[in-house]
Design brief:
509 residues, mainly alpha, disordered N terminus, disordered C terminus
Length: 509
């Protein structure tokens, strides 16, 4: 009898933590969208915003790659050293922190040295004036990348301790700093207000997480002896993962490079559409997998494949059931959503049309994107990181192929559709890899999740048609159907009875 009770408690903890993290993420998204609305109104969607989006890739690359490599491999290593003793765990944390600082600074210097050639490769369609603007902003944003890389390490340590909420506050801080900077300085210095606001937000986030880590007893000390066996093991795991993450991130550079030849505003419209897609990405995709990962890691370390299978199926089933209706909503209301969120000031009707078409194509792959947040973490828990490396390299090839085929048919929206197809293809390969390593998922449960998600999607679509017949107001249309979609997603996410129906015999996972 103790095992079901234990599973029930764990299920409650996972969903409670994921729910709380989703609330923080939703708060961050509200501020992030306020930021985007202010940027759209004050600066617009012209070539200067195109230049900023390209420039911001480099600090984003630094923070994201570090978070997805060493930050991810830190969680299993943290648990492994904690099994030895508290002293071994604390020594590992300090040694890994020292290596993180050295690596982040070294990569930043290298990026600074090769920034010019990298920008020429990434912007074949830019003229010299826009390329020079992108170079200046990218150089000024490098310190932001340093802060974001170190924030990623602090977040990983707090996540390993199952303390998820504070790390999520870094996003609202950054968004608030950019919003204030654009409001105060946007009319005077234009797009550079985003650059300086980003730096201020990153510094504030780094200080906040550092203080919280100290209060929780995490000692982030610089030490001379940092090349310890646990750190070596983490680096060995991170090395193949780095290849995969860099390659996957390379798909963003592929998109920007190919979009740079499609005319002014193409890159900006893709960027604004991505901002909308990040709402479910942050609230759902970014919350549940983060909370699942420590549990997956502990099950893998214990060699309990049955438990690992149960947790994996649970996470994937919830993703599918929740994201299908959200995907339907975003596709059906891509136009009204774009009008409601961005159409003001310098963001005109042409920008709305470009952004809405890209949004619909990104939303088509939303469910596949969500599954792609869970599947790699299962392989990370199993320490099969080289598989992620191989699939990451394959993503670049897939992106080039899909973009080449779809851009002539759909223009810049073909890039967004190619991204959705890339997610679907990669998910199929991930599932094949899990089967190869003996982690079979419960097909019956996933089929039920698909049925529930499809049924909720039909409800959303029928409501969309009904509301569309009553009013043409973007505010009323989006609000009515959006409220239904959010309610249905929340119902699946939080209702124990519906989860029991969806996951028979596994509701205690």
């Amino acid at each position: 009898m103790s095992e079901p009770i234990s599973q029930k408690v764990r299920s409650h903890r996972i969903l409670k933590s994921a729910g709380a993290l989703s609330v923080v993420a939703l708060f961050g998204l509200a501020l992030s969208f306020l930021r985007e609305v202010v940027i759209a109104a004050k600066i617009g969607a012209g070539s200067d915003v195109d230049a900023y989006i390209v420039a911001s890739l480099y600090p984003t690359f630094l923070g994201s790659v570090f978070a997805s490599t060493f930050g991810s491999t830190l969680v299993p290593a943290y648990h492994r050293t904690a099994l030895e003793s508290d002293l071994a765990r604390d020594e590992f944390v300090s040694a890994a922190w020292t290596l993180s600082v050295l690596v982040v600074l070294a990569v930043t210097v290298l990026l600074g040295l090769f920034l010019g050639p990298l920008l020429r490769i990434a912007t074949p369609g830019f003229d010299e004036q826009n390329r020079a603007l992108a170079f200046k902003m990218a150089f000024l944003l490098l310190p932001t990348g340093v802060c974001n890389g170190l924030i990623a390490y602090q977040s990983a340590v707090l996540s390993a301790r199952k303390s998820f909420l504070v790390a999520g506050l870094a996003v609202p801080l950054a968004a608030a700093a950019v919003t204030v900077a654009v409001l105060v300085f946007g009319d005077r210095i234009g797009v550079f207000a985003i650059v300086y606001g980003s730096l201020a937000g990153a510094v504030a986030g780094l200080l906040l997480l550092g203080l919280v880590a100290m209060r929780q007893g995490v000692r982030l000390r610089l030490v001379r002896r940092f090349w310890t066996p646990p750190v070596k093991h983490s680096v060995r795991l991170a090395a193949p993962l780095l290849v995969g993450i860099v390659a996957t991130f390379g798909t963003v550079f592929v998109d920007r490079a190919m979009a740079s030849s499609l005319g002014p505003g193409s890159i900006a419209s893709l960027g604004y559409a991505e901002k909308v897609i990040r709402i479910p990405e942050a609230v759902i995709m970014g919350a549940l997998p983060v909370v699942l990962f420590p549990y997956l890691s502990q099950s893998a370390l214990a060699g309990d494949h049955r438990d690992l299978r149960a947790i994996s199926t649970f996470g994937l089933a919830l993703m599918v059931a929740v994201l299908i209706p959200v995907s339907v909503f975003c596709v059906a209301f891509s136009g009204p959503l774009t009008e409601l969120l961005f159409q003001r000031g310098k963001f005109d009707v042409t920008a709305v049309h470009l952004t809405a078409s890209a949004l619909a194509c990104y939303a088509f792959g939303l469910t596949f994107n969500g599954m792609g947040y869970v599947l790699p973490r299962i392989l990370l828990a199993l320490e099969k990181n080289y598989v992620i490396a191989l699939l990451g390299c394959g993503n670049v090839v897939l992106k080039v192929i899909y973009n080449t085929l779809l851009i002539p048919l759909f223009g810049h929206a073909g890039i967004a559709l190619g991204t959705s197809l890339m997610y679907a293809t990669t998910d199929a390969l991930f599932l094949g890899a899990l089967l190869y390593y003996g982690i079979g998922l419960d097909v019956r449960v996933l089929t039920k999740a698909l049925s529930v998600g499809a049924g909720l999607g039909v409800c959303v679509l029928l409501t969309a048609f009904a509301v569309d017949a009553i009013t043409r107001s973007p505010v009323l249309r989006v609000s009515a159907v959006g409220a239904l979609t959010a309610a249905l997603a929340l119902l699946v996410y939080r209702s124990p009875k519906l989860r029991a129906l969806l996951l028979p015999g596994m509701s205690g996972v």
